[in-house]
Amino acid sequence: MKLHNNTIRGVHSALEAIFEEGQYADKVIERTLKSNPKWGARDRSFIAETTYEMVRWWRLINYLSPSKDYWDLFGTYWLMQGNELPPWEEFARINPEKLKTRYDALEKPALLESIPDWMQELGEKELGDKWAPEIHSLNEEAEVVLRVNTLKINREQLKNRLAADGIRTYIVKGYPDALILEERQNIFRNPAFKEGLFEVQDASSQLVAAALAVEPGMRVIDACAGAGGKTLHLAALMENKGKILSMDLEEWKLQQTKLRARRNGIDIIERKVIEGSKTIKRLKESADRLLLDVPCSGMGVLRRNPDTKWKLSPESIAQVQETQQEILQSYPSMLKKGGQLVYATCSILPSENEKQIEKFLNSEAGKDFELLEEQRVLAHESGFDGFYIARLMKK
User: Fold this and answer.
1) Which residues of 339-357 are buried (b: 16+ CB within 10 A; e: fewer)?
2) Helix or strand or coil: residue 31?
3) Which of 69, 90, 266, 314 is most buried, judging by how many CB atoms fall within 10 Å of its CB?
4) Nearest to 165, CA basis, from 144, 147, 142, 183
5) What are the φ and ψ backbone dihedral angles of 193, each rounded to 5 degrees?
6) What is the spatial distance between Cα 299 and Cα 350, in angstroms, rounded to a whole number?
7) What are the distances in angstroms from CA 217 to CA 53, 234, 236?
8) How far separated are the first and last CA of the chain, in Å rounded?
9) Side-chain-side CA neighbours of residue 179 (13 Å)
10) Catalytic site residue 346?
11) Catalytic: which of 346, 349, 389, 390?
12) For the segment 333-368, what is each residue's pLDDT rounded down to a tens digit?
């Protein structure tokens, strides 16, 4: 592939915003692409993919690069991908043979997988011999997975509709609403998306709403709803009958749910900002089903959000674990007797998952609950994001 000076500079400016200003990679890339409308589809794809991959391999690139100069860092990455560098003066400091020799001599797992040392230690401690294949899998590029909006179309119909537009997809057993793109592309431009026929949602994430075993006519609370991906899935599973209370601490996130619900043809969602413990108390024993898709480290979605590796710390994980237990101690009071709740994270760490459920069940707040089933989804076993899903019943 021929390199162009201006697109490499686009990558440089994106990396500066991510690593020097601490901004989130997805927002930076979105803004970078908007900043130059003259870039064609190929240029935009190059900038987005290169930025993400350089963020993913940032520690390893920095270790192998002759300097911290962005041209050296890019050139090092380009060679790591098996490409040849053009004879530009910007790449004059890079010696491909020297770089290869240095890489071949590498043995340290944390460097080879391009993660912080503390993350390697934590992963080994929590996952044992499953950690090595798991972190390797989490360094691969995530597939683009669609969730069919069954209120408007079935999976086969959507598959055919997209095929007519030249978009090839395939089906994976065990995920009834999922279609996977054969080739990465900007699917949001397709008219089918604008018509609300699908959402982009990883296959593992699709297991969460399904685990809640909702039925049409139920009263359901999604208590950590965020932008509403799982709320929309619940509404489709309920055939748009009943009521879903979509709750979050942030009003702007719930605003996204409103827009997405309109596109999806859903009208059973009511949005509510959590303004403290009073909001929870007012809803005591009001829900047939309760979804707690709690804040977490995001260790199961590193493929999708590689910058998480550099933003996390042992302290931030400890902090999020406190939040998880706080939610477990108070939110289940919103569930009716005989009702069911699902506790879910996009983390692979038992300390955020099984151990949190165990702690809850052994506490005063959890004494009336029993664990019905739990599922740990690992990326290297499923091929999708890492997740944990536990289903509990209030006696």
Assistant:
1) bbbbbbbbbbbbbbbeebb
2) helix
3) 266
4) 183
5) -70, -45
6) 11
7) 45, 12, 12
8) 62
9) 27
10) yes
11) 346
12) 999 999 999 999 999 999 999 999 999 999 999 999
